[in-house]
Amino acid sequence: MEGVARCPQCAFELDSEDSVICLKCGYNLQTRTRTQTVVVFESSFWDWAKWLAPGIFFALVTLVAIGTICYFWLALQGWDENGKPTWIFAIVQVWGSVICAGIGWRTGKFAYHRLVVNPHPPEQLKR
Ligand SMILES: [Zn+2]
Q1: Engineered SS bond to 47: which of 43, 78, 87, 109, CB 3.0-4.6 Å?
Q2: Other C-beta atoms within 10 Å of 100: how many?
Q3: How far apart (Å, rounded) are the C-alpha atoms in residues 23 and 7?
Q4: End-to-end CA distance of the chain, in Å?
């Protein structure tokens, strides 16, 4: 046959002369390497829900932690009658903020990775 481009790996008919990847076997004609192809199950609504729910939950926890820090520093009143901060107020404000910042950092990092960096649920291979 003339004028038909074929894959050098599996002889499958390519779409055009300048096709780069064979759609049947995954052979790359430019790098001359074979890409592994896998067949996976389509992600269902529940796969998405199970994958994204922890990220959404931890994003909300992060917002609550940020809000708690704002509350400690902006709204919490802990001065005695002389205008000096009480020691219990200082402990709650400082250590509460440190603990909330730690919780917010960890949960925010998880939420960012789950919702922004890697939002797709893991694929399950068909055997
Ligand atoms: Zn091929």
Answers
A1: 43
A2: 20
A3: 9
A4: 36
The rounded distance, in Å, linking the Cα atoms of 76 and 110 is 29
Distance CA(50)–CA(97), nearest Å, equals: 31
Cα of 13 from ligand 1 centre, angstroms = 8
Poorest-pLDDT segment among 15-24, 56-65, 102-111 = 15-24
If you compute the radius of gyration of the chain from its CA atoms, what whole number of angstroms results? 28
- What DSSP line would sit under 14-57, residue for residue? PSSTT--B-TTT-EETTTTEEPP---BPPP-HHHHHHHHHHHHH
121 C-alpha to ligand 1 centroid (Å): 29
Gap from CA of 42 to ligand 1 centroid (Å): 24
pLDDT in tens, 50-97: 999 999 999 999 999 999 999 988 877 777 777 776 777 778 889 999
Stated pTM of the model: 0.65
